[in-house]
Amino acid sequence: MKRMKKPISLALSLVMITAVLVGSASAAPLIVNGGFETGDFTGWTLTLPSGASASVVTSFTSDQGLLYSPVEGNYFAVLKTNGANLFTKLSQVITIPSGAWVEGWAAFDARDHLPFNDTAYVRIYDETGTTLLATPWFSDVAKVGNYGDDP
Ligand SMILES: [Ca+2]
Which of 1, 31, 67, 122 has the most C-beta neighbours closer than 10 Å? Predict the structure, then answer.
């Protein structure tokens, strides 16, 4: 079976919620603690700029009063950053076997207004960690509107 080693990186600005899982036809999940069901960041590398925060929670309410709950399990992660181009990141190196796939959920709670275009991404890089392979999810203030929530 062909295997590729790929870091998965979640680069986030402002507040974002995510749970990432890997599935394959018969194998166990390939991401360690992908759904944060340990209640913490076990298995993940957290990059936390000054003034930023990150937590594993069971629910979250946006500034518009929208209640977020886990899509699967009991937990998800919430990341917040603290300034322009200071991305709070969760990353993990995973090996994706041929025929397997990555799936997950992400949301963006904009707490700012244009022209302050806060941005959030889910990105997949190659094994060097520098070449961007895919951006499966993206959101920003321009997309969701001032103080918007996505979804
Ligand atoms: Ca919002």
Answer: 122
Q: Read off the pLDDT of residues 12-58 as tens digits, 9 standing for 90 and up.
A: 333 444 444 444 445 556 788 888 999 999 999 999 999 899 999 99
pTM of the model: 0.79
Distance from the alpha carbon of residue 151 to the mean position of ligand 1, in angstroms: 10
Torsion of CA 91, 121, 38, 60, to 10 degrees: 150
d(CA 122, CA 106) in angstroms, rounded, equals 8
Distance 117 CA to ligand 1 centre (A): 13
End-to-end CA distance of the chain: 37
| 150 inside domain | no
> Ligand 1 centroid vs 146 CA: distance in angstroms?
8
Q: Would you say 87 and 12 are in contact if contact means Cβ atoms under 8 Å apart? A: yes
Residue 126 domain-assigned (yes or no): yes
The DSSP-derived string for 64-81 is T-PEE--SSSS-EEEEE-
Coil, strand or helix: which one is 43?
coil
Q: What domain range includes position 124?
A: 3-144
In the reported structure, the alpha carbon of residue 78 is separated from the centroid of ligand 1 by a whole-number distance in angstroms of: 13
